[in-house]
Structures are given as C-alpha cells and as structure tokens.
C-alpha cells in the first residue's frame, strides 16, 4: 500500500477505504467550488462482494492505494466461467468474470490485445484498445448527393452494436469506432 493524494485517483485504481476493505475506483471527479475546499468524489466497487459505494475526500487528503499489476493479455474465448485471456510471454491464462468485462464484451475479438489490472491474481478491470475496425451489416441505403451532409444515419455493426454513421457509408463498409461509446470515427483504411 502507498499513500497518494486524493486528487490523483483515477478509474481502475484500487484503494483501501475506512472499513479496511479494498475498492476499485469506477469514476473519480475533482470538484473545485468557488468557495471552500476542493473535493474528490469517487464511485467505487468493493472487490470482495461487488457492492458499489460513493465516497469523497478533500483533494489534499492522503488515501491508501494498493499496488495493482497491469499487464497486456490476449483474448482467447468466452464460456460459462467468463472471458479467458492469455499473457503472451508466460502463456499464463486468466479468467475474467462478466461483471468486470461488462459492455466492453461486444468489442472483444480473437487475439485482441487488452490490458488487465489484477490484484492478488483477481482481475479488477479490463482496458480495450481505444478504437476498433468493424463492418456495417445493416443501415439505410446510400443516397446520391448526400456526401457532404452533416447528418448521420443509424447503422448496426457486425458485433451487434448500433452507431451513427455518415450518409455515404453503406452495408459492407469497414469503419473505425471508439470502444468507449461505439461512436463512429472514420472509414477503415484496411
């Protein structure tokens, strides 16, 4: 355990709270009001049982932060136990539960490299690449003359996620989307 200033807490950090238990930070926000002390508000999940709690500290307060191992893993497969990943240098495998992976599961593809944070061998959080290339499987037909329009149309990607794309993008086109929210970035270059 290391003491850190509360304002330095970020998503994925593991901290020890007042009850002596370990929590993973889900959201950390520094609030600077016009008057009074600045505050760090944090939403956390207790590692032992998954209970979510909210806490706040003055930004200058010291908080106990656990040393978390963060390494690159390759996605292998999904089954009843969860999502299975392999550490590429040691070939060590880890199973990550569905509640840790969450909505990001839709973007996992065979062999994808992700970063997994673990504490005492237990997976705490997973970080996917920021952008992935996916194919459009369903959208409205392309309308001639709408290439410069600023409007977007709904589309379904080959992983089932719905997004908004420019009108000139048709079915079968590969596009780059953000894994954080599924938003369209650009047409894929590959």
Could you please describe the fold and organization of this structure?
The chain is globular, with a radius of gyration of 21 Å. It has 3 domains: 2-65, SH3 type barrels (Roll), CATH 2.30.30.30; 69-127, Nucleic acid-binding proteins (OB fold (Dihydrolipoamide Acetyltransferase, E2P)), CATH 2.40.50.140; 131-187, Nucleic acid-binding proteins (OB fold (Dihydrolipoamide Acetyltransferase, E2P), Beta Barrel). 2% of the residues lie in helices and 51% in strands. Strand 4 (39-46) and strand 5 form a beta hairpin. The chain has one helix spanning 98-101; strands spanning 2-5, 14-16, 22-31, 39-46, 52-58, 62-65, 69-79, 82-86, 93-96, 113-119, 122-127, 131-139, 153-157, 162-165, 174-178, 184-187. The chain contains 1 helix and 16 strands. The chain has a 6-stranded antiparallel beta sheet with strand order 1-6-2-3-4-5, with no helix packed on it. A 5-stranded antiparallel beta sheet has the order 9-8-7-10-11. The protein has a 5-stranded antiparallel beta sheet with strand order 14-13-12-15-16, with no helix packed on it. It is an all-beta fold.
């Amino acid at each position: 355990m290391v003491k850190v200033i509360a304002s330095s807490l970020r998503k994925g950090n593991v901290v020890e709270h007042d009850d002596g238990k370990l929590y993973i930070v889900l959201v950390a926000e520094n609030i600077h009001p016009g008057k009074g002390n600045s505050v760090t508000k944090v939403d956390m999940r207790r590692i032992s049982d998954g209970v979510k709690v909210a806490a706040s500290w003055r930004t200058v307060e010291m908080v106990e932060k656990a040393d978390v191992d963060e390494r690159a893993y390759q996605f292998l497969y999904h089954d009843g136990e969860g999502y299975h990943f392999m550490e590429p240098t040691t070939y060590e495998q880890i199973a990550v539960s569905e509640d840790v992976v969450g909505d990001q599961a839709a973007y996992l593809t065979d062999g994808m490299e992700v970063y997994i944070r673990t504490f005492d061998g237990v997976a705490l959080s997973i970080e996917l690449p920021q952008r992935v290339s996916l194919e459009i499987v369903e959208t409205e037909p392309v309308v001639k003359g709408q290439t410069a329009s600023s409007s977007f149309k709904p589309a379904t990607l080959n992983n089932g996620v719905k997004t908004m794309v420019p009108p000139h993008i048709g079915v079968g086109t590969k596009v780059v989307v953000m894994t954080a929210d599924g938003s369209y970035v650009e047409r894929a270059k590959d």
